[in-house]
Amino acid sequence: GSELGNWALGHWTEEGYDLFENFPDLASALWAAEERKLVPHKFPNHHIPIPEHYLAEDATVAVETRAVMAWMDKNPFVLGANLQGGEKLVSYPFDTARPVSETPAAAPRSADDYEDDNPELQETPDHAIFRWLAISYASAHLTMTETFRGGCHTQDMTNAMGIVQGAKWHPRAGSMNDFSYLHTNCLELSIYLGCDKFPHESELQQEWENNKESLLTFMEQVHRGIKGLVTDQQGEPIANATIVVGGINHNVRTGSAGDYWRILNPGEYRVWARAEGYNPAAKTCSVFYEIGATQCNFVLARSNWKRIREIMAMNGNRPIRRVIPGRPMTPRERMRLRLRL
């Protein structure tokens, strides 16, 4: 910091919490489930539930963190950023480094291939769009890509682009960015505005000019990708339907009004909409380079499996006995049939 400001001043709350790293570590839970081949049929790749021990009253969780998590659950955010200081770059998930022992086996590589490579890095399924979102901010910033002077405290970690994956630069578990990605629909990044955490009042106008166009450009990216409504055949919205994009192993959910947004890079995608009690629907959706999300609506037909499960539940989930024509029913069988009908 400048003048008398220490880098640690204001970093923690009065209770001693670093709020940015106070969220549940859902990435490690996901990777552990992947190792056991539980994803996605038994463990979801999106909207991962918060562990029960984390929600306990005596858990070491800041009241601010609980409030932010409740805010995220209430609002279906699509794009987010948190502003920090002490560096000048944009950091994107994953912030958590995957343990080497849990990294999926890959084809052998020569020793030269490992130069400038971190074996603990785990890219998100949305790695390409995260990089684009980060570049959209850094490239519009007046000085963020001027990395020829190096980083604020060490060498430049961004390869002269002003962006870096969090786990490569500053690995940490339980970050707000990883939580947003794995528990909500939101793609969130960390924007480090500058080396000086405590700029002087006379410098604030220039700091605003440095970031103004970047903030506008970043917010515009919320309109890149696909959006739409998921309804039944009567036009009623279907909440909590799952939107699956082919080739990206990370899904999103519809809101209470059946609406969804999915930020994507330009290209052609095969998209599915799925919901409990309905037959899935699929269509091809194209995303163009111009700003403006492509409308991609889905109408789902009710599935017979829902009614079958209801009938099975009425029968105690036991197989329903088939009535053989020509054989008289016993009074007990007749009574069961009457009750079932």
From TrEMBL:
Residues 1-222 form the Peptidase M14 domain. PROSITE patterns: PEPTIDASE_M14. GO terms for biological process: peptide metabolic process; protein processing. One of its GO terms (cellular component) is extracellular space. Pfam families: CarboxypepD_reg, Peptidase_M14. Keywords: Glycoprotein. GO terms for molecular function: DNA-binding transcription repressor activity, RNA polymerase II-specific; metallocarboxypeptidase activity; RNA polymerase II transcription regulatory region sequence-specific DNA binding; zinc ion binding. InterPro entries: CarboxyPept-like_regulatory, Peptidase_M14, Peptidase_M14_domain. Residues 100-121 are annotated as: Disordered. Belongs to the peptidase M14 family. This is AEBP1 protein.
